[in-house]
Amino acid sequence: MLFRLENIQKYYGRLAALKGITLEMDDDAIGLLGPNGAGKSTLIKVLLGLQPLDGGHAELLGMRVPDEAREIRRATGYMPESDCYLPYMTAIEYVAFNGQLCGMPRSAAFRRAHEVLYFVGLEEARYRKLDGFSTGMKQRAKLAQAIVHGPRVLFLDEPTNGLDPQGRDDMLGLIEDVRARDVHIILSTHLLPDVERICDSVIMLNQGELVHSGSLTELQDRDEEFLEVRTHLADQKLQNCLRKRGFDAEIVDDRLKIRITPDHTADEVLAIAVDEKIQIRHFLPERLTLETAFLRLLDEADDTTVGP
Fold first, then answer.
1. Prediction pTM value
2. Per-residue DSSP letter, 261
3. What whole-number distance in Å separates Cα of residue 247 and Cα of residue 118?
4. pLDDT, mean of each 10-residue run, the chain (308 residues)
5. Which single residue of 7, 84, 109, 306 could bond 96 by disulfide (Cβ 3.0 to 4.6 Å)?
């Protein structure tokens, strides 16, 4: 079992960051999703033993948190969202230092640091100080320090944060290469396409509660159909008309996403648009994307929380 959570709870003062989550996962790559403040980073820190639990029990790779924190650190790599380096260090010193913190002998840590810096594409910059690195180079250095000791599990907190499209694609490619070496990946991100590219399954959190856990395929293959519709300056008007007729319609970016059911068909959408003299510019079926599923699950969770 990759990890097992039993009613885990974490509080910051009166704020409940994790509200009794119970969960078991044993997948190769897991996406950890949720809006800001959902509890994603807290869950990672709890599993790493960096934050104490206020209730419940947790295990990672069969090791009890936090009783076996030292063993867990040897078996895991962690790439945090925020910068985590001493600016006067060179890349080789930084990566080797983190290897030593994970229990590697100094000579082995430096030898391995050269290897992983080559892997992430920083071999020519390994003797440069980190405070002179670009954002993309810093992200690569953070990935290098997370894998220098050969972890069995790699925690990634927003690894593509601040990167341009090419840098993001390169970083995801590196993560795919790490995964191919039989390393479990736990990817926390707000970029849903990154999860679709890297992960097999997802955990969705909202306000410290578990919203959903399971495979990506299961989530995306829910028995639902959608229409993607654009109008000529009348998206809001059409949405209001559809909702009055019982349709589930949401405006996402510049598109209307409309759920189709046996009682609310695509033909009826067109009929309503004709009756209201609304000009349709775009009208296509849409597969259920991770983004759509995520937003709907959050809506359902909010409705349950708020209640009648």
1. 0.79
2. B
3. 54
4. 95 94 94 90 93 95 92 94 88 96 95 98 97 95 97 96 94 97 94 90 92 82 76 93 94 87 92 94 77 73 58
5. 109
